[in-house]
Amino acid sequence: MAEIPLVADVREERGSRASRRLLHSGRIPGVVYGHGLAPVAVAMDARSLRSALSTDAGVNALLDLDIAGAHHLAIARELQRHPVRQTVLHVDFQVVRRDEVVTADVAVNLVGEPLGVTRAGGTVEHLVLSVPIKAKPADIPTQLEYDVSELTIGDTVHLRDLVLPSGVTVEADLETAVVVAHPPKGLVEEEAEAEAAPGEAAPES
């Protein structure tokens, strides 16, 4: 994964009022920390940040962060967003090394058409949308894919069924259900009613 350049300026003013002024001017406040670097308050152009985090890698993009001419390899660690507009209000960057293992959340994307389920009137429920993983920064995948083409009603896909790239491990219970292929709703209700109905009494002799 190639580094994406992003320029950030050291900011002197702190506090919510200063942050509002930055946001109003089209800049995003943030903090950079990690690997012995004392936390540095920074600000960057909102469009540049949006562009850097809008590649296939998303928020897990590996960044070449330029702070007053000093370059740091970094990833966005926490983004605070507006509750309605979902625009970024603040971002934390963590300085990393290429040879260290870091954690990240990676999206789980379903591909293919589960015709064996839909043609029978069933539905596919996607339970886990992202997975916590560990990998070196350059090895963080953009997403994890699972092909649902061969699913049939009653099937369950677990985390252990996902194919992981080399050097990537999942930091969660591998028995966690990711996808479930449900039978038609009417069939489920009929089975539930049958289980709840009392058995017929045996005839008297």
Tell me briefly what this model is.
The protein is α+β, with helices and mostly antiparallel strands and 205 residues long. Helix content is 16%, strand content 41%.
Q: How would you sum up this structure, described in words?
A:
- The structure is a single chain.
- Helix content is 16%, strand content 41%.
- It is α+β, with helices and mostly antiparallel strands.
- A hairpin with a 2-residue loop joins strand 4 and strand 5 (70-81).
SSE layout:
Blueprint: E1 4-10, H1 16-24, E2 27-34, E3 37-45, H2 46-52, E4 63-67, E5 70-81, E6 88-95, E7 102-111, H3 115-118, E8 123-126, E9 130-135, E10 143-147, E11 156-158, E12 169-170, E13 177-182, H4 185-196
Parallel strand pairs: 1-4, 2-6, 7-10
Antiparallel strand pairs: 1-3, 2-3, 4-5, 5-6, 7-9, 8-13, 9-12, 11-13
